[in-house]
């Protein structure tokens, strides 16, 4: 059985070598599509194409539906062409050129929009109503118009929000607070423990 398989592989390789040789000699052909093949046959064909100095690709989703296409080096496929084959579409240079032109037009339009400046944004809802529970129900509209913070939440200057202490200073302060709490819990203060 193994001998039979080996013989079939050798025969298949010879057949592929002949087909690839004919393909190379035919100046009218730029690419060639082979029918569906199994994994071993595809690997043999890829090897034969590589030895012959050709470019080869496998396409297809399922393992059973995969096929090989070979290309002459001087007519190697573009990325767009490969993408079309991967999607299972036929490559049409005219359609590809049209898609490329449309893509360029869309890109130009986006660049022109960006140069015009920011567009005026009109929200779907009024943020004052949406966040009235945070701003305050009665004074929501007034607070939003005057841009004053709700006094219930406090107003802290930016300078007070930054902690300028070093890590060591912060850790020492935390330790001191813990020590003070422990000493309060033991006997009501540090002076009562000495009596």
TrEMBL record:
A family per Pfam: R3H
Biased amino acid composition, Gly residues: 186-195
Region of interest (Disordered), residue spans: 173-195
Superkingdom of origin organism: Eukaryota
InterPro entries: R3H_dom, R3H_dom_sf, R3H_sperm-antigen, SPAG7
Entry GO MF terms: nucleic acid binding
Residue intervals of the R3H domain: 10-73
Name of this protein: Sperm associated antigen 7
């Amino acid at each position: 059985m193994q001998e039979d398989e080996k013989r079939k592989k050798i025969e298949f390789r010879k057949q592929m070598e002949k087909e690839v040789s004919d393909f190379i000699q035919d100046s009218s052909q730029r690419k060639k599509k082979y029918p569906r093949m199994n994994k071993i046959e595809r690997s043999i064909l890829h090897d034969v194409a590589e030895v012959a100095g050709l470019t080869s690709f496998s396409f297809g989703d399922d393992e059973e539906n995969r096929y090989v296409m070979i290309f002459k080096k001087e007519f190697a496929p573009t990325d767009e062409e490969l993408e079309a084959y991967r999607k299972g579409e036929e490559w049409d240079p005219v359609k590809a050129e049209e898609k490329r032109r449309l893509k360029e037009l869309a890109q130009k339009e986006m660049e022109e929009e960006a140069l015009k400046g920011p567009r005026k944004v009109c929200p779907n809802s009024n943020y004052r109503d949406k966040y009235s529970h945070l701003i305050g129900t009665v004074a929501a509209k007034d607070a939003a118009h005057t841009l004053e913070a709700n006094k219930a939440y406090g107003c802290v200057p930016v300078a007070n929000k930054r902690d300028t202490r070093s890590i060591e200073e912060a850790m020492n302060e935390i330790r001191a607070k813990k020590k003070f709490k422990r000493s309060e819990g033991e006997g009501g203060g540090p002076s009562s423990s000495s009596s």
